[in-house]
Amino acid sequence: MDKTDSLLLGLLEKDCTTPVHELAVMLEVPETEIVNRKRILEEKGIINRYSAVINWEETDRDMVYAIIDLKVTPEHEHGYDRIAEKISWFSQVQSLFLKTGTHDLQLVVKGESMHEIAAFVAEHIAPMDQVHETVTHIIMKTYKQNGIVYHEREKGKRLPFSF
Amino acid sequence: MRDYISSLARVIPPSGIRRFFDLAEQMENVISLGVGEPDYATPWHICDAAISSIEQGHTSYTSNRGMEPLRLELARFLYNHYQLEYDPDKEMIITNGVSEALDISIRSIVDPGDEVLLVDPIYVSYAPCITLAGGVPVPVPCLAKDRFRLTPEQLNEKITPKTKALVMNFPNNPTGGVMRKEHIKAVADIVTDHDLVIFSDEVYAELTYEGTHVATASIDDLRNRTITLGGFSKAFAMTGWRIGYLCAPREITDAALKIHQYVALSAPTMSQHAALEALRHGNDAMREMIDEYYVRRNLFVDGLNRIGLSCHLPEGAFYAFPSVENTGLSDVEFAERLITEYQVAVVPGSVFGEGGINHVRCAYAVSRADLGIAIDRMGEFIKEL
User: Fold this and answer.
1) Within chain B, which residues score under 50 in pLDDT?
2) How far is CA B82 from the centre of its chain?
3) What's domain B45-281's architecture?
4) How far is A163 from chain B (nearest CA, A)?
5) Which of A111, A112, B82, B347 has the fewest CB within 10 Å, making it most exposed?
6) Looking at the complex, does the CB of residue B35 fall below 8 Å from at least one CB of chain A?
7) Neighbours of A31 (CB within 10 A)
8) Which architecture characterizes domain B7-42+284-384 according to CATH?
9) Cα dihedral sign, B45-B46-B47-B53
10) Are A12 and A76 members of one domain?
């Protein structure tokens, strides 16, 4: 990946609504090149979606997130892939990772209540044959998400002028 | 009562922006492009290193030269980044910001009556420091048509038998101009032929956008006659820590060290611990900040040209230096009316020397959103003129 692609991805990751003409100015390339580069990055599966980062804690809608660690028995010839694929199908599952450490898979699950999350784990995840342990952690407060710091302290004031 | 104020203190001019400072203080909703420091807070791991050093009781003086591990790490950094080789035990002093480094180095070299050339426009401290050392500051114009670089023609014109040294600060505050390898080479022979010392303030070195910074002392045999000044303020967002350095051949460093030990003793110990952490682990955060300055520069300079303020694309630092000539206002009138009527603070270029007349310095070390608002307000202001 060249420097321009790398900067473009960084800019889009921070704000995917930045207009093409502004991106072109910032990266010193023609607008058509920005359009082409975005298309190629999308086609390669590097850019997968342009979405908003929402702090649900600030809305009046109840939204509960949980991190669920699973111990899983890998399958012959498929390892963890098939069970991971199966878990990915659930719309409640926001992210899914294979990781090192005491557990094998880690899910980030979204629900409207703790009860809903508990039911999801009990009814859909725990009963799977390959899953032999689940540990559910409810998210209590979000400090940083997708690079955005919530509840940031006020910065020190700079002088209006300095040399 | 006698007038106790020394004649030297009397001749140095007061800060050229005091009046603007007072104006800005009275206003609300000001977007300040007048600030010569990053808008980032110092990265947390750097702050933590300082806090931890205090907790561990590292609150005494350090050696005059600065902590040994910091000098070793700095020597490594200067070699890796700029191919500069300095002996950390003999050719380096850690100072209270670059400000102290420039003061003690000037006082180590300049005798009363010596003429000291300085690029113009230039950061405001040099001329007064030269005057305080009894020297005579002689500006060498760096013109917009040359992208504010120092040229051999302009340099040659100002050299007299009394000329002892040359002060350069590239990447330049206030213009953002830089000297590439070929530009330094072009003046190197003149400097050598006239046996001048170079004070090279390279505090903005990391903020060089196209290509990499070329250190003056890395060119030909200029190392023997160059005092390299640098600091942590700009690249690591550490202005308030007051930590900088001076590197020079041993003879010069020994002289500067004598002055340093009497006027400063040592740089703040906790700041030295913070600087060590910055050099060891601060590179990633620094690169992120520099990438952000790069896109802001492009956005802001495009905006300036769009609203009719002609501005070259600065190759370094975080300043744009547009001309305000076509507005019919002087740079001081422009800056004064802009802050009073549209609440955008910029610094009149003439503050930085005659070469800055008809220009204003705009620091783009503010958020992209604020830069956008500033451009809109400046555009409205120009339309109303």
Assistant:
1) none
2) 18
3) 3-Layer(aba) Sandwich (3.40)
4) 5
5) A112
6) yes
7) 14
8) Alpha-Beta Complex (3.90)
9) positive
10) no
Between the CA atoms of B26, B30, B34 and B35, what dihedral angle is there, to the nearest 10 degrees?
Answer: 100
What are the tokens at A40? 């190629």
Q: State the nearest Cα–Cα gap between A152 and chain B, in angstroms.
A: 12
Q: Which of A7, A162, A163 sits opposite B295 (nearest CB)?
A: A7
Query: B14, A163 in Cβ contact below 8 A?
Result: no
Residue A156 domain flag: no
B47 touching A (Cβ < 8 Å): no
pLDDT in tens, B127-143: 999 999 999 999 999 99
Using an 8 Å CB-CB cutoff, list chain B residues near A162: 34-37
Q: How far is B298 from chain A (nearest CA, A)?
A: 5
With 0-12 / 13-18 / 19 or more C-beta atoms within 10 angstroms meaning exposed / middle / buried, residue B275 is: buried
Q: How confident is the model at residue B192, as a pLDDT?
A: 97
The shortest C-alpha distance from B296 to chain A (Å) reads: 7
Show which of residues 313-352 on chain B sit within 8 Å of chain A, judged by CB atoms: 345, 347, 351
From A129, A134, A135, A139, select the one nearest A86 (Cα to Cα): A129
At A146 the pLDDT is 85
B353 in contact with A, Cβ within 8 Å: no
Q: Is any Cβ of chain A less than 8 angstroms from the Cβ of B54?
A: no
The better pLDDT of the pair A16, A159 is held by A16
Sketch the domain layout of chain B as residue ranges: 7-42+284-384, 45-281
Does B125 reach chain A within 8 Å, measured CB to CB?
Answer: yes
Is B20's CB within 8 Å of A161's CB? yes
Asked if pLDDT for residue A11 goes beyond 80, the answer is: yes
d(C-alpha B335, C-alpha B349), whole Å: 9
What pLDDT is stored for residue B27 in this prediction? 84
Q: Is the dihedral of CA A107, A112, A118, A119 positive or negative?
A: negative
> Per DSSP, what are the bridge partners of residue A70?
A105, A134
Residue A52 lies in a domain: no
Burial label, B145 (beta-carbon count in 10 A; 0-12, 13-18, 19+): exposed
Do A28 and A69 belong to one domain? no
In the predicted structure, residue A26 carries a pLDDT above the cut 90: yes
Contact A158 B34 (CB under 8 A): no
User: Which residue of chain A comes nearest to B17, CA vs CA?
Assistant: A161
